[in-house]
Design brief:
alpha/beta, about 290 residues, TIM Barrel, two-stranded antiparallel sheet, homodimer
Chain lengths: ~290, ~290
C-alpha cells in the first residue's frame, strides 16, 4: 500500500468555540502547519481569516503571508482554499492563487476544486425547518474547467473535492479529457452537523463513495468529514489503502480528552491508527513524488 | 410486499429516432397512457410537446388538453412535469399546474420535484470534452419549499425525484419538517447515455441509493434510469419491495426485439418480471390508496 498521506484541514471557517486552538493569523496557521508536519501531515489546507476576529477573509495578502510563514517553518504541501463558496466570479475565486504564484515563497502547491453544484441545505433532527433557502454552491462544468486550467497554469495541482457519486463520474470525465491530470488527490467528503448536501459521515456513507472511485484514474483518495469526528472514517480509509484529510476546521475533537486538542494532536491520532494497521506515513517529499506519478 | 406501482415515463424530451413510438400530441400521449394502464401502469408521466415537431413546449393548453384526454380514456394518476430544468422563475415552473387545477378534468394528481441542484455534465468514453459548460439544474432549498407548497395547495402530490444520497437526506428533512408528506413516492434516478450527474445505471449505482432511503419516511421508492435499459434495475427493485418508473422517454428499448416497442410493451416487460417474482400489480386506485396512507 501507498504510504499514508495526511492533509491537515487547519481552520476552514470554524471559530474558537468550543475549541480555542483553531488558528486564524498567518503565524498561528504556520505554527500549526509545522506541528502537523512534525506529527505526520504532508499537506496543510487553510482559509485566510482576520487575525483578531477570525472573520473569513479573501485578502490576497493574508493568503500569501500565510503560505510564506508556512514555508519559513516547514516543507508542507501548501493548499489554500479558493474563493468562498457562493462567489461565482472566476477572478474572485482564483485571483489570489494567481497573485501568490508570482513569488516561489508564497505560491500554492495545491488548490481544492469542488466537483459538484449543490443546494446547501442545513437540517438535523429537532430543527423545525430546513435552512439555506438561497444557498447554492454553484460550480458549472465550464467554471470547473476554467479553475482547473488557471490553477495548473500557475503550477498549482488541483485537488478534487468529491461530494457525491456524480462528482466521481465527473472526476473520471475530467481526467479522461485532460482537464485534470490522471494522477490526482481526491478528498471524499462526508458531511454531518446539519450539512446534508453530502453523504452521511458513517461507514456506509463513506463506502458508497469509495465504491465509485473510477478505476481508470490513478486516484489517490482520502476520507474526510465536515461536522463530525472523522477518526472512524480515517481507519476505514487506512484499511482500504486510502488517505486522510482531517483537522479542527471540520470538528473540535474534544473526544480526544484532556485539554481541547491542537491540529497536531488530531494528526497524531490518525498516525496512531496507521501504526496499528502497519501503514507508514508519507513525508511531504514522498507525497509530492506520489502525486507527480505518470 | 406492496403491490407493484409502475410509473410509465411516456416521452420526456425524447425524439422519434430511433423509436418512432414516442408520443407527442395530447391524443398520442392519452392513447399511450390508456395502453400502459391496461398493461399495468398506475401513474403516467408526460412532458408537453409540440404535436407535429415534438419540440419541448411549456404551453398550459397542451398540458391541460393532455390531462383531459388521459382522463377521458382511463383512470391513471396523471403526472405532468414542472417547467424545464434551467428555468428558475417559480411561475414558469409551476404556473401551468396551478392553471390546470381549475378544472377537475385537467388537474395534475402528482408533480415531480427534483431534490438537488446539479451541474449537468455530459460525457461518455470517447468524447474529447465534457459538455454542458453552463448547464446547472438550479433547485435551491427555498425554491423546492415553494414548489412543494404550491403543488400541495392545488391538490397535486409531490413526487420526490432523487439524484444522489444528498437528495435522500433532503427528502428526510423535508418529510420531518412538513414540507413533504411522510408518505411519499420517490423515484431513484440513475443516469446513463452521457448524463453523468446521477448514479450510474448499474446494480451498484441503484443500490447505493436504495441503501440510503430514510427509514423514518414512509418512502414508496421506484427505480428509474435515464439513458439506458432499466429492466435489470426494475428487477432489482421488484426483488427488494421497490417500484418501477420506466418508459420510452428514457430509452428506446429496441432490445425488446421485433418492431420498436410502444410504452405499453415496456410496461408489459416489467409486469412479466413482477409475475416471475410473485409481485402483484397495483391498479391506479390501489396506488392512490397506498400514497394516501398516514
Amino acid at each position: 500500500m501507498d504510504k499514508l498521506i495526511i492533509d491537515a484541514r487547519l481552520n476552514e471557517y470554524t471559530f474558537r468555540e468550543p475549541n480555542p486552538n483553531v488558528p486564524y493569523s498567518p503565524n498561528e496557521i504556520a505554527r500549526d502547519a509545522e506541528a502537523c508536519v512534525a506529527a505526520g501531515a504532508s499537506i496543510v489546507h487553510y482559509h485566510a481569516r482576520e487575525p483578531e476576529t477570525g472573520a473569513p477573509s479573501s485578502d490576497t495578502g493574508l493568503y500569501a503571508a500565510t503560505a510564506r510563514a508556512i514555508r519559513d517553518r516547514c516543507d508542507a504541501i501548501v493548499m489554500p482554499t479558493l474563493g468562498a463558496n457562493t462567489v461565482t466570479d472566476l477572478d474572485a475565486r482564483i485571483g489570489h492563487v494567481e497573485s501568490m504564484a508570482a513569488d516561489a515563497a508564497t505560491r500554492a502547491d495545491m488548490v481544492p476544486l469542488d466537483l459538484a453544484s449543490l443546494s446547501l441545505g442545513m437540517w438535523q433532527k429537532g430543527m423545525d425547518e430546513v435552512r439555506g433557502d438561497d444557498l447554492v454552491y454553484y460550480n458549472p462544468i465550464g467554471t470547473l474547467k476554467a479553475l482547473a486550467a488557471r490553477a495548473r497554469a500557475v503550477g498549482a495541482l488541483p485537488m478534487a473535492a468529491i461530494w457525491n457519486v456524480g462528482s466521481l463520474r465527473l472526476l473520471e470525465a475530467f481526467c479522461e479529457t485532460g482537464v485534470l491530470p490522471n494522477t490526482i488527490f481526491a478528498e471524499l467528503f462526508t458531511t454531518e452537523g446539519g450539512l446534508i448536501s453530502g453523504h452521511p459521515g458513517t461507514p456506509a456513507g463513506l463506502q458508497a463513495l469509495i465504491d465509485f472511485v473510477p478505476a481508470r484514474v490513478d486516484c489517490v483518495w482520502a476520507a474526510a468529514c465536515y461536522g463530525a469526528n472523522a477518526l472512524g472514517l480515517a481507519e476505514q480509509a487506512i484499511e482500504q489503502g486510502g488517505h486522510v484529510a482531517i483537522g479542527l476546521g471540520d470538528h473540535p475533537y474534544l473526544e480526544l480528552g484532556g485539554d481541547p486538542p491542537t491540529n497536531a494532536r488530531v494528526v497524531e491520532a490518525v498516525v496512531e491508527i496507521a501504526r496499528r494497521h502497519g501503514r507508514e506515513i508519507a513525508t511531504p517529499a514522498e507525497t509530492r513524488a506520489r502525486l507527480a506519478a505518470r
